[in-house]
Amino acid sequence: MSRRPTLISPSILASDFSRLGEEIRAIEAAGADWVHVDVMDGHFVPNITIGPEVVKAIRPHAKIPFDVHLMISPVDLHLEAFRNAGADWISVHPEAGPHLNRTLRRIRELGAKAGVVFNPATPVETAEWVLEDLDLMLVMSVNPGFGGQSFLTSQLKKIERLRSIIDKAGADIVLEVDGGVTVETARLCRDAGADALVAGTAVFKGGPAAYADNIRALRGA
Ligand code: DX5
Ligand code: ZN
Q1: Which domains does the chain carry?
Q2: DSSP string, 21-57
Q3: In this structure, which residues have their CB less than 5 angstroms from ion ligand 2?
């Protein structure tokens, strides 16, 4: 089966926030495909991170696409601000608003690619009714809110199920996995059918001199 090479999307949640611009330049130079931005509001998830102003400030530091993961509720109010800040891919949790289909359509209307995120307990069926409005499926392999957690192997079955939904529909949808991705779990994700991997700890460990090796190791897993 011919598959596209695994995309690596480093989560800047694990980077040095006092040097964000430099960190983004460093991961781009180290071969990252995307930049994963974790946006948390202290309400939908227990942690607070960054907002659109910060995304706007760091956007000029890289040319690769920004993969923005919104863990905020209600989410609709903020889509435009993140798009204007330079988000290329915008992913939302179905639990973050009352009308998932409308939210996804709005993201595309704004000119971004639309993604839906599956919490560990979110059923795969959610995707089947919005397939035509989707560019990305993001499977959470941890409970969202923090970096550095352990990979939930229960989610491998979900990756397999979503892979088969995408393939059966012949849809052009990227299947991405987020949380606890290491060289070991990257291989499991890949075997289960993932196209793209988010990794925070596994990319940023060891500092800038290690980023290229860390990314290569994940991609080759
Ligand atoms: C969790 C975030 C993840 C997280 C990944 O809520 O969505 O992107 O930062 O971090 P690691 O790779 O350290 O699990
Ligand atoms: Zn994320």
Answers
A1: 7-220 (3.20.20.70)
A2: HHHHHHHHHTT-S-EEEEEEBSSSSS-B---HHHHHH
A3: 38, 69, 178
